[in-house]
Amino acid sequence: MFIKIGVGVLRKPDNAPYQFSRAYPILETGVWLIRPYADGVDFVQELKAVEGYGYVYTKRVRLIKGRPELVLEHSLKNTGRRAIHTSVYNHDFYVIDGQPTGPATSVRFPFQPHTSADFKGLAEIRGNEVAYLRELASAGHETVAGYLTGFGATAKDYDIRVENSRAQAGVQQTGNLPLSKLYLWSIRTTVCPEAYLALDIEPKKTAHWRIKYRFYTLPEPAKK
Q: Dihedral (C-alpha) 162, 164, 168, 173: value to the nearest 10 degrees?
């Protein structure tokens, strides 16, 4: 068996390596508590110690009054006797005005990204952004995906912008911890930059991290 934070205790039916897309039986979910507020909601999971691992995980989803911003505030308290070494990310599926992923779409960073992935002529890296060369087709499940590198060791590089020039809208995603991994996954209907954070938490210690989303409009294009 193994523990997946935010899910609980899972059982591996065999000795095959863990696979993200594989379904594993859930043995124990811990205790969940939901606390609503006027501007947000808390989700709290407490898992008692299993083989020395235990935690209290809290995720607060909060809207910022008067500003087009959404904030996710997390904490993970280690209540077990063994250190927790793991990584976390938020699964973001961006859809802007229902527009398909294509030449109007860009994913921008404060650094120049690099990748060894084959974008198969569907996208390319231009300076500090991933640009799409044509609309991805739903037939055949066309995908642009791969790990990106080039970010540094500080939180200033956790600054991702997904924009659509046709809709003249974008979203900026920022975090207060350094990136440990960065994976881009996209199909015709959505663009998903997956920013991983590394957590190393000793017993009785608590880790805190925050992700902020700012929604904005792009300036009107200059008329010819």
A: -10
Residue 185 DSSP SS3: strand
Q: Is residue 46 part of a domain?
A: yes
26 and 71 assigned to the same domain: yes
Q: Which residues form the domain of 11?
A: 2-82
44 in a structural domain: yes
Same-domain check for residues 192 and 111: yes
State the amino acid at position 93 in one-letter form: F
Using CB atoms within 10 Å of the CB of residue 129, give its burial: 0 to 12 exposed, 13 to 18 middle, 19+ buried. middle
Indicate the number of domains in the chain. 2
- Encoded tokens for 18: 């863990």
Answer yes or no: do 127 and 72 share one domain: no
Question: Does residue 45 lie in a domain region?
Answer: yes
What is the rounded end-to-end Cα distance, in angstroms, of the chain? 63
Beta pairing partners, 119:
none
Q: Which residue shows structure tokens 């229902």?
A: 98
The C-alpha atoms of residue 43 and residue 71 are separated, in whole angstroms, by 14
Per-residue tokens: 67: 């500003």
Does the residue 120 lie in any domain?
yes
The predicted-structure confidence for 64-119, as pLDDT tens digits, reads as follows 999 999 999 999 999 999 999 999 998 899 999 999 999 999 999 999 999 999 99
The number of helix segments (H) and strand segments (E) in the chain equals 0, 17
User: What local confidence, expressed as pLDDT, does residue 20 receive?
Assistant: 84
Question: Do 77 and 60 contact (CB within 8 A), yes or no?
Answer: no
Phi, psi of 116 (to 5 degrees): -100, 0
